[in-house]
Design a protein that fits this description.
The protein is an alpha/beta fold. Helix content is 37%, strand content 19%.
């Protein structure tokens, strides 16, 4: 049984083909610059050289056709016939309150996803386009939706309700939803294993830090709070998103600069965060290099980001009554030793004692590591995330009729004998 996982963004389609019997990735890759011209595919197969092909993809359907052609091609393919693909799992960023777990996609599910696309206008439309394109290319296999928001649907009402006119919640669904759910699910389960505890006995803070950044407070194995809100704009400082700011600022700047609501939304989402502070960078490696070369704004960006990360650790520790572990994951979380070090500096009073040498030597996306000393009461882990494995296990369980939800379903990676491949 081969499972294809698709993650359709506005101008890209990521994919991974997983052999369920061998528990191994057969191939993975990405089509870049979909809809904007000069498109190309990067295709990776274990044991082979990475393959790249220029191929114009004016829409997501052409991009998915390209993926299928590449997976089944004689020269670079990995399957002899597309009938080997048993199902497709689709990342859907926003499920609103309608979806608390992964589901088999039918006409009603697709309509429900469309009904909440106004809550994630930058993300859900390309997710929907990808589903429809894949259904047209692979019409005879089941398609499953895996929601970013599902993991956080366990939040209590006092955590997800905003102090705004309450009728906005009823009329428009204005509340905290949270995102990166599959990543927080995966690394929190792995952290429980590394702690040698059952998830229900763990209090963990998970910190997904990439271009997008979100944190989750996990008590007893479930999400009770998370940093992103109605949209992925709220929360931590991100590559191009501002995160938490005074909500009066947009109206103030709109009045002074004459921006429209659409323009100010674009600035907050695409021209703020690390890019806004530095004026030129989103990649933290560039920011660190700039700071080392004397760029004051790069140094300031590092201080702002790590300071706000530190504050989230403190606030979430208070919210869940103490913590057993902090987990760093995603690109910056896994590779950015300096940001981790600056974030954890001064938290010894909480029982976090960083092993600086271990931390500086931990820059890998393939290995789980502990970066605190043996004496540290609170453990800090660096755990490479694997959202595609969550996709795959959800899809297989739905096909086999064994899936319930993330609280009751037993994932392979939650077992002590699990080995990352």
């Amino acid at each position: 049984m081969d499972i294809l996982a698709l993650n359709c963004g506005s101008s890209s389609v990521k994919y991974q083909l997983f052999d369920w019997a061998k528990k191994a990735v057969i191939a993975k890759g990405m089509v870049e610059r979909v809809t904007i011209g000069d498109s190309y595919i990067i295709h990776e197969v274990p044991g082979r050289e990475t393959y790249r092909e220029e191929y114009e993809c004016p829409d997501h359907q052409v991009a998915i056709h390209l993926i299928i052609k590449t997976l089944s091609g004689k020269t670079h393919g990995v399957v002899s016939d597309m009938s080997q693909i048993s199902a497709v799992g689709h990342r859907v960023v926003h499920g609103g309150e309608k979806f608390t777990c992964s589901v088999l996609i039918d006409e009603h599910v697709l309509d429900a996803i469309k009904e909440v696309q106004h809550l994630a206008p930058l993300h859900n439309p390309p997710n929907i386009a990808g589903i429809e394109a894949a259904q047209s290319v692979l019409p005879n296999v089941p398609h499953v939706a895996i929601f970013d928001t599902a993991f956080h649907q366990t939040m209590p009402k006092h955590a997800y309700t905003y102090p705004l006119p309450y009728e906005w919640y009823g009329k428009y669904g204005v509340r905290r939803y949270g995102f990166h759910g599959t990543s927080h699910l995966y690394v929190s389960k792995r952290a429980s294993v590394l702690l040698g505890k059952d998830p229900k006995d763990c209090n963990i803070i998970t910190m997904h830090i990439g271009n997008g950044v979100s944190h989750s407070a996990i008590k007893g194995g479930i999400s009770v709070d998370t940093s992103m809100g109605l949209t992925p704009l709220e929360g931590a400082v991100m590559g191009t998103r501002c995160g938490d700011i005074d909500p009066a600022i947009p109206a103030f700047i709109m009045e002074r600069e004459g921006y429209t609501p659409k323009e100010i939304d674009s600035i907050l989402n695409k021209k703020s965060g690390v890019l806004g502070i530095t004026g030129q960078y989103t990649d933290r490696r560039d920011v660190i290099e700039g700071a080392n070369n004397g760029c004051e704004r790069c140094a300031l960006a590092l201080e702002i980001e790590s300071y706000r990360l530190k504050k989230y650790i403190g606030s979430y520790a208070a919210a869940i009554g103490g913590i057993d572990a902090v987990v760093f994951t995603a690109g910056v979380g896994e590779m950015g030793w300096l940001i981790r070090e600056k974030t954890l500096e001064g938290l010894e009073f909480m029982g976090i004692i960083l092993d600086k040498e271990k931390n500086r030597n931990t820059m890998t996306r393939k290995k789980e590591s502990v970066i605190t000393t043996p004496e540290s009461r609170v453990k800090v882990f660096v755990i490479p995330t694997d959202e595609e494995l969550v996709f795959t296990e959800d899809v297989v369980a739905i096909l086999e009729g064994t899936y319930t939800d993330h609280m009751r379903f037993h994932y392979s990676f939650a077992g002590h004998d699990f080995q990352r491949k």
